[in-house]
Amino acid sequence: MMNASAQEFCVFLEVLRISSPTRAITASAIATSIFNALTASVAIVGNMLMLYVFWNFKRLQTPSNLLLASLCVTDFITGAIVQPLTITRRLLEANGAHNCQIRAVCAYNAFLCIGVSIQSIAVVSIDRCVAIKMPFRYANIASVTRYFWIVIVYWILWAVFISMPFTNILDASQFFIGIAVLICIDIAVVLLCYGQIFAVVLSHRKRIHQQTPRQNHLGKGVDNRENNTNTIAIVILVMLICYLPLLPLLAFRGIAGDKVNVVYVLDAWADVFVYACSSVNPLIYWYRSKEIKNAVHTVLKRWKLLKSSNHSETSRRTRREEIPFSISYKKSDQRHVCEHGNGRI
């Protein structure tokens, strides 16, 4: 038999103490803790590595990668702070205990990371839309300094908004509805931008196919922009899938309030999906971007975590690549000499 105590609050968050948790609640706490421990480890290592290569490789210090670095910061905070606190909170609550400080710190950082992550994706989508639709003006519009201040501004705005319920400016219902609305607005911006992006990409591909082989090299810049855009599209798709269970849950909690099964079971599994996104993102960057992959491999070789290729294999590969050119060059010389000797210059 499960009994909840009288209404109690930790800051603005309702506390539902349970004298005797059911098997479902205990099983959910243990299972979600295991999943969170695994994904947190991947998120910490993966995002630290991404931030390291963004910081140390100048060729990766682009405006677009600055936005990805902002996303890596939220993913790292999720793995390093939010998930360990979530594990502690769930295990305590499954045993009928509760720690307000742990829950408050966890909730603040979790909501901040969720908000900033979605905002980063929206800004990245706008960046990709500008790059695809206005390629010749993009270099003047996008700069590392300008994007840096954009990142700082939306981090501050989200930090202030998340602080409002903790300082009694907003109540729980207003906060949950507000964050759900803001997330939906950002998702709408993402969908609108990518609708325009795909229309432009289809138009570019038609023009490239109509070009002669000598003109096909002009499409290489478009292909690079499309590859970056497709990488962000994959990140967005994964994030939307991970956040899908959270949005209706936030709306339900804002309208109906907290219930025991919602807090201890549904909310616990929704958190698992959201937090898992933080461990998947760096894998996507590594797999989709050759520059990031090469930088990561260079770092791993430098740290002796990845074997470097043998010099002999490299030299053999270099010789194989050089031989065809030298042969063709000699043949052309011979042909030139013969033609010159026969009077046909």
Layout of SSEs?
Elements: E1 8-10, E2 13-15, H1 23-56, H2 63-94, H3 100-133, H4 135-141, H5 144-166, H6 172-210, H7 220-243, H8 246-256, H9 260-288, H10 290-302, H11 311-341
Antiparallel strand pairs: 1-2
Number of beta strands:
2
- Class computed from helices, strands and strand pairing: mainly alpha
Along the chain, the helix and strand elements come as EEHHHHHHHHHHH
What gross morphology would you assign? Answer: globular
Helical amount among residues, as a percent range?
Answer: over 70%
Proportion of strand residues: under 5%
Q: Summarize the biggest pleated sheet.
A: 2 strands, antiparallel
Mean pLDDT: 81
Low-confidence stretches: 1-5, 311-345
| C-alpha termini separation | 101 Å
List the total number of helices.
Answer: 11
- Numbering strands along the chain, what is their spatial order in the largest sheet? 1-2
Q: What is the rounded Rg? A: 27 Å
